[in-house]
């Protein structure tokens, strides 16, 4: 599916409180795009100070604190206005976003980073192995790089390593390096709480294997097969109460939450579907190794 070539003309206009109008117009080659990636989805509270602010399938997460907020993933650049609206619908200020993070540097998760960083002045933090992808707009990607830059290049402010802690206010997130899908692909672990209890959260980067990935190694990513093998093993051992992922479809968002539904952290309990998707990917991994 990534052989499909599409050209996207992007025009985003954001009017922020106490900020001038920001206009970004740029052409990038997108290997693939789904309607669900830009379809609107009402924002909601997952648990404690963790909120879903993404689209129908591209997940973006807002972690709120009294010192400002963290945003994980942005979706496509054309969805930045929608993301801003979702944040404000929940009662928070878009301009209070202080830290930007990403589960991995593919255009469907980071294409809005440059615009949001410019609009908010937030600090962009990226796992060290994905820094170059952010700098060149994805053109050095081992699989998708043949299409050229697929998102606006942006230079990270802070380079993160495995197990590094990101702190803001009274909230701490731990970066878990889960490479394969990209060299710097990462999950995030944090603990949130409400009036009833605390919840261990895993924002998982599910290690999907793209059809054009050669596990024997590719120019620019020779150890991709080894990285996938490592990630599949360590992700099986992760412990959590609630898990979500980079795509809503990966954690059955639409079955677990309906628009307008009341606050129900328990809807995201359990790991049966988490173990199932990892098992399916591992089967694909083993088959592809044999091929």
Report on the structure:
Residues 57-247 form the Metallo-beta-lactamase domain. Residues 1-25 form the signal peptide. This is Metallo-beta-lactamase domain-containing protein. By secondary structure, this protein is of the alpha/beta class. It has a single domain, classed as Metallo-beta-lactamase, Chain A, CATH 3.60.15. Helix content is 22%, strand content 27%.
List key phrases describing it:
27% strand, 291 residues, seven-stranded mixed β-sheet, five-stranded mixed β-sheet, single chain, alpha/beta, Metallo-beta-lactamase, Chain A, disordered N terminus, 7 helices
How would you concisely characterize the structure shown here?
With 291 residues, the protein is α/β, with parallel strands linked by helices.
Write the layout of secondary structure elements.
Layout: E1 6-14, E2 22-30, E3 44-47, E4 50-52, E5 61-65, E6 68-72, H1 80-89, E7 97-101, H2 107-110, H3 113-120, E8 123-127, H4 131-135, E9 158-160, E10 165-168, E11 171-177, E12 186-193, E13 198-204, H5 224-236, E14 242-245, H6 253-256, H7 272-290
Parallel strand pairs: 6-7, 7-8, 8-9, 13-14
Antiparallel strand pairs: 1-2, 3-4, 4-5, 5-6, 10-11, 11-12, 12-13
Helix pairs in contact: 5-7
């Amino acid at each position: 599916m990534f052989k499909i070539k599409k050209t996207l003309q992007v025009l985003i206009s954001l009017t922020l409180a106490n900020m001038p109008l920001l206009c970004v117009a740029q052409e990038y080659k997108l290997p693939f795009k789904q309607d669900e990636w830009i379809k609107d989805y009402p924002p909601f509270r997952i648990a404690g100070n963790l909120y879903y602010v993404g689209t129908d399938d591209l997940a973006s997460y807002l972690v709120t604190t009294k010192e400002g907020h963290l945003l994980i993933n942005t979706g496509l650049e054309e969805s930045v206005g929608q993301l801003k609206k979702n944040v404000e619908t929940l009662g928070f200020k878009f301009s209070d976003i202080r830290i930007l993070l990403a589960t991995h540097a593919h255009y469907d998760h980071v294409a809005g980073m440059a615009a949001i960083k410019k609009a908010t002045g937030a600090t962009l933090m990226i796992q060290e192995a994905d820094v170059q992808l952010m700098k060149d707009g994805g053109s050095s990607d081992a699989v998708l790089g043949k299409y050229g830059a697929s998102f606006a290049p942006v230079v990270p402010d802070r380079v993160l390593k495995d197990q590094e802690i990101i702190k803001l206010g009274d909230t701490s997130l731990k970066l878990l390096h889960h490479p394969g899908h990209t060299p710097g692909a990462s999950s995030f672990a944090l603990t949130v709480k409400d009036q009833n209890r605390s919840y261990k959260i895993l924002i998982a980067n599910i290690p999907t294997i793209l059809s054009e990935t050669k596990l024997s190694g590719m120019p620019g990513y020779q150890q991709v097969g080894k990285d996938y093998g490592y990630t599949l093993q360590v992700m099986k051992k992760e412990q959590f109460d609630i898990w979500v992922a980079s795509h809503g479809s990966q954690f059955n968002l639409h079955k677990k939450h309906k628009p307008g539904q009341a606050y129900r952290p328990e809807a995201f309990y359990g790991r049966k579907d988490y173990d199932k998707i990892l098992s399916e990917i591992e089967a694909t991994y083993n088959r592809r190794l044999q091929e």
